[in-house]
Each structure stands twice: as structure tokens, then as C-alpha cells.
């Protein structure tokens, strides 16, 4: 995965999902690479990625997929950014080509 800037914004899909509880065993947490940095994610997000990517590749081949995922797009350690981004979520979902729930 790679981070893409907001301007100009490519056509994207958005993922809306319940974050769920933190894993009880962090050593058994799925990890993804985001701009070549390992990021731990929750199992339900990992499962959603697998399903979305499988269906995207089945329908569109190797064309890129731009996906807005709030857990990854918002710096969860920065309260000011979180407050600002949460206010933008409605617009993010409205302007997405598709919202996967």
C-alpha cells in the first residue's frame, strides 16, 4: 500500500467498517506494508482488504485501487488531526465512487 495525496485526488473507494476491539494477542496481529513501513492492523480490516482486493483484481485486473480507510488515513495519535478528519468523513464518503460497508 502507498499513501496518495489529497490533491489532485484520484477516483477512490472508501471503506466503512467497525474497528472492533484491539487484539488480545498483539504478536498475532496482521501486518501490512504502508510505504514500506510495517503497520499492524486488526483482523477485520485485514479480512476486508483481502476480500476487496480479490474482487477488484477479478473485475479490473491489475488496475490500481485507491481506497480511503479511516484507520490508516487518520493519524490516530494526533487528536487535532482526528478531530479535523472526522468532520470530513461525510464528504469523503459522499465523493467516493463506492463505499464498501
Describe the structure.
By secondary structure, this protein is α/β, with parallel strands linked by helices. It has a domain at 1-19 and 51-101. It has three helices and five strands. The protein has helices spanning 43-60, 70-73, 79-95, and strands spanning 13-15, 31-34, 37-40, 67-69, 98-100. A hairpin with a 2-residue loop joins β2 (31-34) and β3 (37-40). It is globular, with a radius of gyration of 14 Å.
At a glance:
With 101 residues, this protein is of the alpha/beta class.
The low-confidence runs, each spanning 5 or more residues with pLDDT under 50, are: none
Alpha-carbon distance between the termini?
20 Å
Give the ordered list of helices and strands: EEEHEHHE
Please report which band the strand proportion falls in: under 5%, 5-15%, 15-25%, 25-35%, 35-45% or over 45%. Answer: 15-25%
Q: How many separate helices?
A: 3
Organism: Pseudoneurospora amorphoporcata
InterPro entries: HET, HetReg/Transcr_Mod
Domain Heterokaryon incompatibility: 12-101
Pfam families: HET
Based on the model shown, name its key terms.
single chain; 101 residues; alpha/beta; 3-stranded parallel sheet; two-stranded antiparallel sheet; 5 strands; 39% helix
Ordered list of secondary-structure elements with their pairings:
Layout (H helix, E strand, L loop, with lengths): L12 E3 L15 E4 L2 E4 L2 H18 L6 E3 H4 L5 H17 L2 E3 L1
Parallel strand pairs: 1-4, 1-5
Antiparallel strand pairs: 2-3
Amino acid at each position: 500500500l502507498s499513501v496518495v495525496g489529497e490533491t489532485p485526488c484520484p477516483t477512490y473507494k472508501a471503506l466503512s467498517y467497525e474497528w472492533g476491539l484491539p487484539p488480545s494477542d498483539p504478536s498475532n496481529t496482521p501486518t501490512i506494508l504502508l510505504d514500506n513501513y510495517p503497520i499492524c492492523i486488526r483482523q477485520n480490516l485485514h479480512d476486508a482488504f483481502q476480500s476487496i482486493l480479490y474482487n477488484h483484481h477479478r473485475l479490473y485486473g491489475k488496475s490500481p485501487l485507491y481506497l480511503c480507510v479511516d484507520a490508516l488515513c487518520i493519524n490516530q495519535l494526533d487528536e487535532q488531526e482526528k478531530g479535523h478528519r472526522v468532520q470530513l468523513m461525510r464528504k469523503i464518503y459522499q465523493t467516493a465512487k463506492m463505499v464498501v460497508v
